[in-house]
Amino acid sequence: MKYPILYSFKRCPYAMRARMSLMLANIKCELREVRLNNKPNHMLEVSPKGTVPVLILKDQVIDESIEIINWVIDKHKIFEGNLSEDLEEYTENLIDLFDKKFKYHLDRYKYSSRYEGSNESKHRDECAIILSEIENTISDHDWFFGEKINKLDIAILPFIRQFRIANPNWFDQNLESKKVKEYLNRFLESDLLKDVMINYKVWDEDSELIYFP
User: Which CATH number fits domain 85-193: 3.40.50.720, 3.40.50.2000, 1.20.1050.10, 3.40.50.150?
Assistant: First the structure.
């Protein structure tokens, strides 16, 4: 295997953040775009839980997005020296909050019909509360902590983006967290997002090799 293999799905926020880390480190992969309702047998063989992203290396399979990010950071030190120890600890705590509490409410807001008895507006408001809690921490520069992108940015922005997609009019007109909206808008206009959101043909066993980035 000349390059790592990455099973991905363009719109999945977990796959997005894995692709961003690989892009920032310029780690070339064979990209395999999948349909989540028709997952390739090989992907299921190496990762039976059947979710993306899945990164296949010569000596291991990593099938959690945050673990892919951590592997990239450990290998290439892409954010080294950007943050103090206190902000690194804050980063890990906030990522954990988004991965658990924010994502829990986001799913029940965006996909309320899938959850019996789900109160869409309640879950929307819970997400908004979390965003209001970070409002005064966000910088006025491109990224959360300032001019340099960090692990926190690539970990949480895909979920904030999904929150807006659930109801763009409500987000733009009613979310009171002004700096959160500005932070998201800078991301939506960034070259990084454009570079990781390219359309790829769905992969099958007969597909030509496609590389990312």
Answer: 1.20.1050.10
Q: Which CATH superfamily is domain 5-78+197-212 in?
A: Glutaredoxin (3.40.30.10)
Angle (nearest 5°) at CA 51 between 129 and 49: 115
Residues shown for the chain: 213
Let me know if 176 is exposed, middle or buried by CB neighbors in 10 A (0-12, 13-18, 19+): exposed
Compute how many other C-beta atoms are within 10 angstroms of the C-beta atom of residue 202.
Answer: 12
Relative orientation angle of helices 120-134 and 178-188, to the nearest 10 degrees? 90
Which two three-digit tokens encode residue 195? 């570079």
In contact, 33 and 202? CB cutoff 8 Å: yes
pLDDT digits (tens, 9 = 90+) for 124-148: 999 999 999 999 999 999 999 999 9
pTM of the model: 0.95
Strand partners, 38: 35
Q: What is the chain's mean pLDDT, rounded?
A: 96
